[in-house]
Specification:
The complex is a heterotetramer, with two copies of chain A and two copies of chain B. By secondary structure, chain A is mostly beta strands. Chain A folds into two domains: 2-81, Glycoprotein, Type 4 Pilin (2-Layer Sandwich), CATH 3.30.700.30; 87-166, RNA polymerase II/Efflux pump adaptor protein, barrel-sandwich hybrid domain (OB fold (Dihydrolipoamide Acetyltransferase, E2P)). Helices cover 3% and strands 54% of the residues of chain A. Chain B has helices at 11-24, 40-44, 63-73, 89-98, 107-114, 116-125, 141-151, 177-192, 249-265, 297-304, 308-316, 396-408, 419-427, 429-432, 440-444, 455-470; strands at 4-7, 27-33, 47-52, 77-79, 101-102, 155-159, 169-171, 197-201, 207-215, 221-233, 236-242, 270-278, 284-290, 333-340, 342-343, 349-350, 353-354, 357-359, 366-370, 377-378, 385-393, 411-413. By secondary structure, chain B is of the alpha+beta class. In chain B, the strands form six sheets. Chain B has an eight-stranded antiparallel β-sheet, with helices on both faces. Chain B has a five-stranded parallel β-sheet with strand order 3-2-1-4-5. The termini of chain B are far apart. In chain B, helix 4 (89-98) packs antiparallel against helix 5. In chain B, strand 2, helix 2 (40-44) and strand 3 form a beta-alpha-beta unit. Classes of the chains: A mainly beta, B alpha+beta. Chains in contact: A-B, A-C, B-C, B-D, C-D.
């Protein structure tokens, strides 16, 4: 089995050979690792990695599968599954090209209107969550083509608050 | 004696208060806003009343609704917790008028200590050392500039009402004073409804050391030792400990006496906290009195063995403190970490949402004052605190190790938490050395990033999760006889 | 220093030991029998090895297999917990031969103190008061009868090897002595593989008071105060507390000195417990030394603030005790309740099975040393302990209230537990009065029955369960706006 | 809705009138009680009974639905459902008329053989569980018609270890 997984904004190909019901060998880059595993309930996956046990806790979230062990939570997604489902979310790379809140929030102010020209880094919407205000910035130079929200709206991550059409700047493939 | 207490709060502190109520055989009444219908404090209470929408002014800050519920439910006392109405003199005054016991000091004391300039005057009269600064709030920028010159730069601008770092500004140069005063005043006005500000000498490289006090209505006042709360981010405490690495027995006695003097000077009754700044030469200055149960009170409970909420209720019932100062002895070392729904990788921005899975650390010497459970939503509307993780061990070194272990086992999925950051702080040499000044985070963890971590194991867990979902794989008792056990099996021992 | 410890045990005690290992940065190795593949101690360990079938002789009592795992896994020490091989001198001796550190006293000490008649001789030499009785085990019923006459009825028959009440008989009349000796001997033979028995004076209305001791390999011996363990059923402790309601400061010093003398007389190294019978006039008699970590050690940890398992590991590593007797001071009061899978309505018969749902009590001062989790099976093959619930509070009265609260919140579904019985004991006047003699249960709770309880609410819960299953009823955030909230809603306040 | 529930070996008729999605009125004997309820997850049922909240934890077990609150677990079954499913388990009454272990156990000794006459209270099988031995007694005078187990067998509650035919003794309806 081949997986194409996304973690820390990197795509990592992972090859898996089953060796029975609760054991497999995984190849990650040059490394080959023998793994034993057992599942307890919905969230606990007991692994044996290179002979040492580690308890991992897993749950699926909007941002991918959350995997916790040793005090740290990792987010892992299956790039192939994302492609199949046509998810809007860009898997790899860190190009933020949308004006969307980092968390559920309330819009405090919209600082642009349709037709406005904006500069990269210019504040376009101010949102508030848990008594903290934060400003969302234009990701590139461009023109506001649509404003989707107004002050007082409750908004979620992924909601596009303002559509901005990118300004031409030569044929940069990025 | 009090028989039924309305808890005018939510989250972990409401739950913690209810725990003590239940032990004392006191019924608890929860109030909640509509988004908190399934909140843990609502589940835990004996009675629960919805009092409005999520907007705090419509619910947790709505004095008249809360008093109506107190009457309707037959509660004879109200515990305000911390935050919300805890230091609202008008609320305490309304309770006094309505003959409902307010579990805290009198409205007069709250009002006087809540105004920092009045508080400073009281402390000066009571012989408590205060930082050089203005005796009265001001708004005229010219007067402020003159006062700053008199006190000497750097100066600290503070809001006369409120706390939590709001309205606070450090000003190092005279040319900045006008703009800073204007900004601080408008911030204070929007946070506390009161734009009054004043100036104090800014103490460089200070520690924030506070003393817990208990004062009954019969004139008995004691302190329950200190808490070191220097580790702050954006003027919010994140890690607290007791004893303070900087406080010697002699200094403890001096500061404790000053804290008791502060309580007596202000006519304080109930539990409170006297905050001091401690400079590197062992001089300390009165900062403010928090006229409420403090977020970090559990570390004091762990080292003194005293349930502070129980004492609050007893004092509010008119009971005499059965403790004398000589009965108070700290034992061991306690540390608290505040666990918020916040994203340490995104500048600690709040991260509300659904707790998809929660597994609290447990074990000897571990206490987790928690306000959430698996499947509950952390709403966007309030302070995003999930819990306070507290450990207690024989000494500081062992307490640090215990906290690192507890954090490493604290599973919170669905929202982001600062657990990886807290672990790195606790593992740092600077923390081990007790270099806990208020600039600790800025100095040692300004550019913190979580690091890659153990990516291989995370990928493996993902794959194992896929395989166990697809095959609906579950351990079976019978599979104990399979050759392929998930645990290392010594084959020739199998019988 | 020890780097990796094999824990030759299962259940809550294995988990508790691993907790301290993890804090100390020591890796843990679990061993398990096939039925324990999913047991909590297996999940918690860093490494886990299946060593055989459920029959203890094939796994947890299999000395050679355990030593093989120690070598294969690279463990440099073995912690035996309690029960199983904990007081097995042959096991300790094999560890010594194989150069694996046995975390406990030497095989010689285990062997000598394990033979109660030798132990008595050692104590008499060491100046420790012992009950009048035989100095040697016997099997001839005629000699036993003569000895009984000499000591004076009533007498107590005890097994020379082993403990836990097995092989024990009280004989009040001479005509019963023959039959009782035969029964006791055969019971001892089947339980311990050794039918040797002896007689002691039976102390009427005694209390069972024991002292925790710590002894390092450098000759330092201290005690960590007493535990009152009089509340027993079938000679098994069920509720323990410290301090004892019967021990005055003067008696504590006397008994503590005797306990230290007992440790010194026997050449004891590591943690151990010296058990005494305390009669109603304050006379105390050496009973036995438990050469292991005791089930009820957590109450001592709560009042002294000392992690006994950590001290065991440090002592086994050759470290010197950093504590002196004068450093030891108890604070507050701790109580432990043992929670077994057993049916209090059916004469406490074991009730193994699947834990369908578990919710542990938590909160300030509450500790639950637990060995199970939701969905795990409590196997039929072993001691049916689920957990030990421990509370710590300012004084005995508050500790009792805290324990009652904790028990009332301890949800264990799928197996029966004695929680309702324990609650009734803790609520009883006799317990409140500290009338904790070893006949406590027989005297006050012989004919205990759980009572009807609140049947109406149980029926209502059944109905609500049916309705919420059928309609797949779940709270929805949106339902917060319905007029029909499950919590009392003040209609006109809804916005 | 009418329920016929079994608790503490008693049959209790319970009538329920729904008053919305999360509220009902229940009649038990003479009593009428207004109940609010909400479910959290699989096991927690929050009730409001006569105005006071109580959290109950529920789970289905072989012996009925286990319901926990205030430190005590109750077992409640639906008599009608038991009758429909033709369960062997006698709902009400406490007549033990089978030789079956109270818990999972191992047979230590069988003290009777087929054809033996037995007296009520006579020991017929000894079982062991968790290192404790207990004797199972004949529930009435009769004749052993079949012995279903032998020493060493693992047995479960509900397993009939020995079939005993009851001796005639007049036409007692019980």
């Amino acid at each position: 089995m081949d997986y194409n997984l996304i973690i820390n904004d990197k795509n990592i190909p992972v090859n898996v050979d089953l060796e029975g019901e609760d054991r497999f060998v995984v190849s990650i880059g040059e490394k080959m690792i023998t793994v034993g595993f057992g599942r307890i309930g919905d969230h606990l996956l007991c692994l044996e990695v290179n002979g040492k046990k580690v308890n991992t806790y897993i749950a699926d979230t909007a941002e991918g599968r959350a995997i916790f062990f040793n005090g740290k939570t990792y987010l892992v997604s299956d790039a192939d599954a994302l492609n199949q489902s046509g998810s809007r979310r860009s898997g790899g790379g860190k190009t933020i090209d949308e004006v969307t809140p980092p968390m559920p929030a309330v819009v405090v102010a919209v600082k642009v209107k349709e037709g406005d020209a904006v500069k990269k880094g210019q504040g376009v919407v101010v949102v508030s969550a848990m008594k903290m205000e934060t400003t969302l910035f234009a990701p590139f130079d461009g023109t506001v083509t649509k404003v989707n929200v107004q002050a007082g709206n409750k908004v979620m991550p992924g909601d596009i608050l303002v559509d901005i059409e990118k300004q031409e700047e030569g044929a940069s493939p990025e | 004696m009090i028989k039924k207490i309305l808890i005018a709060n939510r989250g972990e502190i409401a739950c913690r208060i209810m725990n003590t109520c239940k032990e004392m055989g006191i019924e608890s009444v929860a109030v909640y806003s509509d988004v908190d219908q399934k909140a843990l404090h609502v589940l835990m209470a004996d009675y629960a009343y919805c009092i409005g929408t999520s907007e705090p002014s419509q619910s947790y800050l709505n004095i008249e609704k809360i008093l109506d519920v107190a009457k309707q439910s037959g509660a004879d006392a109200i515990h305000p917790g911390y935050g919300f109405l805890a230091e609202n003199a008008a609320f305490a005054a309304r309770c006094e008028e309505e003959d409902v016991i307010f579990i805290g000091p009198s409205s007069k004391v709250i009002s006087e200590l809540g105004d920092k300039t009045i508080a400073r005057q009281i402390m000066i009269k009571g012989g408590v050392p205060v930082t050089p600064g203005m005796m009265q709030a001001e708004s005229d920028p010219k007067i402020m500039a003159r006062e700053a010159d008199r006190i000497g730069y750097p100066v600290l601008i503070k809001a006369a009402a409120g706390g939590g770092g709001k309205g606070m500004r450090i000003v190092k140069h005279p040319e900045e004073i006008h703009a800073a005063c204007a900004a601080a005043s408008s911030e204070a006005a929007s946070a506390f409804g009161n734009g009054a500000i004043y100036l104090e000498k800014y103490i460089e490289k200070p520690r924030h050391v506070e003393f817990q006090i208990l004062a009954d209505s019969h004139g008995n006042v004691i302190h329950l030792l200190e808490r070191e709360c220097s580790i702050q981010r954006r003027h919010q405490k994140i890690i607290e400990e007791t004893p303070s690495p900087a406080v010697t027995p002699a200094l403890r006695e001096q500061m404790g006496n000053a804290a008791v003097a502060a309580a007596k000077a202000s006519g304080y009754v109930n539990a409170g906290t006297v905050e001091f700044l401690l400079d590197s030469e062992g001089h300390f200055y009165f900062l403010e009195v928090n006229t409420r149960l403090q977020v970090e009170h559990p570390i004091t409970e762990m080292v003194t063995g005293i349930d502070i909420v129980r004492r609050q209720i007893e004092i509010a019932s008119g009971k005499s403190l059965s403790l004398k100062q000589e009965d108070i002895a700290g034992r061991g070392h306690a540390i608290e970490c505040r666990v918020y729904a916040e994203d340490p990788e995104k500048d600690f921005f709040p991260s509300p949402g659904k707790i998809v899975f929660l597994k609290e650390p447990s074990g000897p010497g571990i206490r987790n004052d928690c306000g959430v459970y698996t499947d509950v939503e952390v709403p966007v509307d309030y302070d995003p605190i999930i819990s306070k993780l507290i450990v207690h061990a024989e000494n500081r070194e062992k307490a640090i190790l215990k906290m690192i272990k507890a954090l490493s086992e604290y599973v919170i999925l669905g929202v982001k938490t600062p657990v990886p950051f807290l672990m790195d702080v606790l593992k740092s040499e600077a923390f081990a050395d007790g270099e806990t000044y208020t600039d600790f985070i800025a100095k040692h963890f300004e550019k913190w990033s979580p690091g890659e971590g153990d990516i291989d194991t995370a990928l493996i867990a993902f794959v194992a999760g896929e395989l166990s979902v697809k095959g609906n794989h579950q351990f079976q008792s019978s599979s104990a006889n399979d050759a392929l056990s998930p645990w290392k099996t010594l084959g020739n021992w199998r019988l």
